[in-house]
Design goal:
Elements (H helix, E strand, L loop, with lengths): L1 H18 L7 H4 L17 H13 L9 E2 L5 E2 L2 H5 L9 H29 L5 H28 L33 H23 L5 H24 L23 H19 L15 H19 L8 H29 L4 H15 L8 H26 L7 H19 L20 H9 L2 H30 L6 H6 L1 H6 L7
Antiparallel strand pairs: 1-2
């Protein structure tokens, strides 16, 4: 038995040393002892037990400082400063979690470029395909500049002490290093996390493009996006995901609204979708809308873009666990189920209603399923994801086909019907279907999210979380609708929003960019 214990200790020491989790074991530490020695109350070198505790925290994607805490005479648990310096806690990232988050960042960027560009590009007429691509490219560059300068800090800092805006500590990525920010991820470098969140910031305003496609000047769209990021996106992202945000139910125990949004139902899809509806109504209909055929010019591009969106969405949803852990695995599974079922169900509804199942129907259903599962993916069971997939096909279909036909607003590529309606539906269903983070006996629930705050867990248990979700929906609607109305008026006064009638008829590819998508 002693020989086995020695081999286990040596194996652990070698593995810990390879991970950089401490110095190698000393002879004294590896020698058998008649009675186990008590861990020292203080010290600058971590003991074997402390190093193993840190390793377990890495495997569980949890706080690595917990195993190092020592209680003082008053009973307060703290980590000695010298011990903290010699142990990989907040100073070091974990390779597995960091690697997954870098991959997730690339996947979310893949959603915009080329995913969304091809999806939207295939749905517009041939004369406007490059204009959509240019708008997606413009979002990528413009938002990155804003994010580096002030955006990341306004969302994920807390130095202002505000529930609406973060602070100025990270302006120009100052102090955004490879060390983790424990407020958001114990084992992920802050610069990686900042880049990951940047990809969300890029795709959100790009979604708005779908509602105003083929009839808004490039300069007007870029100006609108600059203003919209400050008025809508930055405050909304801080309110929902900031450590002291107004509606950050997971991170802020003192939040005014204890809502939960795993990957962006309110922050991404509701804000962009409802803003898109208001903007397209203010902008007006395309010339010839309702009189001319405005069918997608290339469904192959649309289908390819849909596939890229689905693949990229795994980074969007599973990456929002901020680590390669059990929660990420649950989000990954739920994303798959909801997208596949919604795509099939939408096409089946179309078959019954119209007598055929179209590629556009499959693509619309897949995207709707991805949208609706987004806020819930880390909080619901697989059965909940199946329910969400079915409802994601039914409710957005009603809005895209019947409501849009009734009110005749020109939401060119159904941004409102899919993203606004889907995001709102997802936020509400999250409140209904979320599984508690812990079971009644206090044991961890592998289906639920153990990082839920105690307040949110109580709301889930008593069935009142949906009320918190409805309050969050109301705040999101207020910011998106009022903000868009004000910004549209400003943009109209500064640059004007629409091209001339002749330019719109000719197509924005030539008038805005002096290029054509196809030379035949």
């Amino acid at each position: 038995m002693k020989a086995n214990r020695m081999l286990c200790l040596l194996a652990a020491a070698i593995f810990l040393s390879w991970l950089g989790l401490g110095t190698s074991l000393t002879a004294q530490e590896t020698a058998p002892a008649a009675t186990p020695a008590a861990a020292p109350a203080t010290g600058s070198t971590p003991t074997l037990e402390e190093r193993v505790g840190v390793l377990e925290a890495y495997l569980m994607n949890s706080d690595p400082s917990e195993p190092l805490k020592i209680k003082d005479k008053s009973g307060n648990a703290t980590v000695p400063e010298d011990l903290l310096k010699n142990t990989p806690t907040a100073q070091h990232s974990g390779p597995g979690h960091n690697g997954w988050m870098m991959a997730s960042s690339a996947l979310v960027l893949f959603m915009t470029l080329p995913g969304l560009a091809l999806f939207y590009g295939g749905l517009v007429r041939r004369k406007n395909v490059l204009s959509v691509c240019a708008q997606c490219l413009g979002c990528a560059g413009l938002v990155t500049l804003l994010w580096w300068a002030v955006g990341y800090s306004l969302v994920f800092d807390d130095s202002f002490g505000s529930s609406f805006f973060g602070g100025s500590k990270f302006f120009f990525f100052h102090n955004v290093t490879s060390a983790p920010n424990p407020n958001y991820g114990f084992w992920v470098s802050q610069n990686v996390y900042a880049c990951y969140q940047l990809m969300f910031a890029i795709i959100t305003p790009a979604l708005i493009v779908g509602a105003v496609a083929e009839r808004m000047k490039y300069s007007a769209i870029m100006l609108f996006i600059v203003l919209w990021m400050f008025v809508v996106y930055f405050p909304m992202a801080h309110m929902v995901w900031g450590v002291n945000g107004l509606m950050s139910g997971v991170l802020n125990a003192h939040a005014k609204i204890h809502a939960i949004d795993f990957a962006g139902g309110t922050v991404v899809h509701m804000t962009s979708g409802w803003s898109a509806l208001i903007l397209c109504m203010i902008l007006g209909k395309r010339i010839g809308y309702g009189k001319e055929k405005m069918a997608p010019h290339n469904m192959v591009l649309c289908m390819a873009g849909t596939g890229m969106l689905w693949v990229g969405w795994y980074g969007f949803n599973a990456g929002s666990a901020v680590g390669a852990d059990d929660i990420a695995a649950n989000a990954f599974t739920n994303t798959t189920l909801a997208a596949a079922i919604a795509g099939f169900a939408w096409a089946f509804i179309e078959l019954i209603h119209k007598g055929h199942a179209s590629i556009l129907g499959f693509c619309s259903g897949i995207v709707a399923g991805l949208v609706v599962i987004t806020p819930a993916c880390g909080f619901v069971s697989p059965t909940g994801a199946v329910i969400i997939g079915l409802l994601a096909a039914i409710v957005p279909y009603i809005f895209v086909v019947f409501v849009k036909g009734k009110f005749r607003y020109d939401d060119a590529l159904d941004t409102f019907g899919v993203h606004a309606v889907g995001g709102t539906l997802g936020a509400i269903l999250t409140g209904i279907l979320a599984v508690p983070g812990k079971l009644a006996n206090g044991a961890p629930n592998p289906v639920g999210n153990p990082n839920l705050s105690a307040n949110v867990d109580v709301y889930i248990h008593n069935g009142s979380l949906v009320l918190q979700q409805l309050a969050a929906v109301g705040v999101t609607l207020l910011f998106a609708i009022v903000g868009t109305v004000i910004l549209a008026v400003i943009v109209k006064l500064v640059t004007g929003m629409r091209p001339t009638r002749e330019e719109e008829t000719q197509g924005l590819d030539l008038t805005d960019h002096q290029e054509e998508g196809y030379i035949l």
